[in-house]
Design goal:
Number of strands: 7
Strand content: 15-25%
CATH architecture: 3-Layer(aba) Sandwich
Oligomer: single chain
Distance between the termini: 51 Å
Order of helices and strands: EHEEEHEEHEHHH
CATH topology: Rossmann fold
Structural class: alpha/beta
Helix content: 25-40%
Number of helices: 6
CATH class: Alpha Beta
Number of domains: 1
Length: about 200
């Protein structure tokens, strides 16, 4: 099936705009600019939204303005209004278990403790939607996660996340038209190359 709704997760407000938890918002901002639209607030959808053409398909973009742990309220409101099924939804979010610069695509599965995904699953009554997972890295201690995601990335991390967003933008047209296997191949092959061992020139 084609993707009819792309949701970018984040927290509203200027104090959160540059934080790691808003990586989904960052990608949606790019899609809106590329589509030459402004995302406008719609109270019935509890978020900023707009419609763009991607690969000749009409696609809704949505940034929930409910704060992360209530993201599902916005998603289900727009999806039900336009009769969009869960497997026609792509959720873009930050991912602790993936390094900065790495991006992965998957359908369904757990929420990994991500409050935005957890609430979307609850409101849709299913986990059967697509996720584009933008790596932000992990602080190493689970007790530091809440503080970590609500802080801006370091400069070198931001550069890597920006690279991952740019790479994602190239494959989103494939995801939209249902060529998810091809999109995964591009994203995941590139990621595996990054993890290949590189010899230390000092040891040559």
């Amino acid at each position: 099936m084609a993707i009819k709704l792309i949701v970018g997760l984040g927290n509203p407000g200027g104090e959160y705009a540059a934080t790691r938890h808003n990586a989904g918002f960052w990608l949606l901002d790019h899609l809106a600019r590329d589509g030459q639209i402004f995302l406008r607030h719609d109270s019935k959808f509890h978020g900023l939204c707009g419609k763009v053409k991607i690969a000749n398909h009409d696609v809704w973009l949505l940034q929930p303005q409910t704060f992360m742990n209530r993201s599902g309220l916005a998603v289900v409101a727009l999806a039900q209004f336009y009769k969009i099924m869960p497997d026609e939804i792509l959720v873009v979010h930050d991912e602790l278990d993936i390094a900065p610069g790495v991006v992965k695509l998957k359908k369904g599965g757990g929420n990994g403790g991500h409050n935005g995904l957890k609430d979307i699953q609850s409101h849709l009554s299913t986990a059967d939607f697509w996720r584009l997972r933008l790596g932000i890295g992990h602080p190493g201690n689970k007790n530091e996660v809440a503080n970590f995601v609500l802080k801006p990335p370091r400069r070198e991390e931001q550069d890597l996340i920006d690279d991952a967003i740019n790479k994602s933008l190239l494959v989103i047209p494939k995801i939209v038209i249902g060529e998810t296997g091809a999109a995964m191949s591009i994203l995941h092959t590139d990621d595996s190359k990054k993890r290949e061992h590189k010899p230390d020139p000092k040891k040559d």
